[in-house]
Amino acid sequence: REVFSGGWNPDIDPVVRTGERTSRLTEFLKKFDFAVLRSLLEQYAQRSQQQGDRNFLDAESVFDSYSGDAVFSSAENIIGLNAYVDEDPDANYCKVAESLVHEELHAITDRSHHYDYITGYHRKQAFRLFNEGLTEKLAQEVTAAYLSATAAVSKEKWPEFDKYPVARKFVDNILDRLADALSISRETLWQALIRGMFQNESLHDKELQDLFEETFSPAFFRVLEKAESEEELEKAMQQSGGIQAFAGRIRKWLRL
């Protein structure tokens, strides 16, 4: 499981150990093509009209993770990575690469200041799982492009990526229903959500809050904001209502 942090005390919780890397991580970092990934993420950032410098982290900023698959620390601006998650070498490379891409997306959309944690749509502890579902969905898309571009592993050997399954389903559910209500392509809507992620759009806008509550259900926005488990997201999907009446307001928010 991925861990998020705006910083930690390494004497109490050594999530990431900076310094000498394990041989597994060293081997992975030598094989991974950071230039290709940087180019791919730059394309997304440019399409999203992201302003300011890109916070892309190279191999020098990646260390061993001792808590879950991977972690991005906004306070330290480093990534912790577990370089051994599968016995099969090809599957392991793909899964570790996908975890790295996920954390790079957090890094490149990070606009935190001191303890004001802002990464993508994530604000402090608000909208964490929504941002996770969107980030993981995009990470899988970028990873597929990376693996194709580098030919590091033949496509028939790519494993399934299964992180945040309900959070991804939650995002897919929103995409399907809004695309249908707005009579636009799912891809157009997906790119709009990606743009909002790269531009750190705030979901705390009062008009937007009212929109979500009226569009789905009175409790939907609160679940979207506060959900700590994927079970809560699953329940919100089951309880959400119709959205046809609010298509115009949704178009305005997404700038479509």
Beta-strand segment tally: 7
- Binned strand content: 5-15%
Q: How helix-rich are the residues, as a percent range?
A: 40-55%
Which spans have pLDDT < 50 for at least 5 consecutive residues? 3-14
Q: Give the N-terminus to C-terminus distance in angstroms.
A: 35 Å
What is the topology, as strand order, of the major beta sheet? 1-4-5-3-2
Order of helices and strands: EEHHEEEHEEHHHHHHH
Overall mean confidence score, pLDDT: 80
How would you classify the helix and strand content by structural class?
A: alpha/beta
Q: Assign an overall shape.
A: globular
Description:
This protein is 52% helix and 8% strand. By secondary structure, the protein is α/β, with parallel strands linked by helices. Strands 1-4-5-3-2 form a 5-stranded mixed beta sheet. Strands 6-7 form a two-stranded antiparallel sheet.
How are the secondary structure elements laid out?
Blueprint: E1 3-5, E2 16-17, H1 23-31, H2 34-47, E3 62-65, E4 70-73, E5 78-81, H3 89-108, E6 118-119, E7 122-123, H4 128-150, H5 165-182, H6 186-198, H7 206-215, H8 220-226, H9 230-239, H10 247-254
Parallel strand pairs: 1-4, 3-5
Antiparallel strand pairs: 2-3, 4-5, 6-7
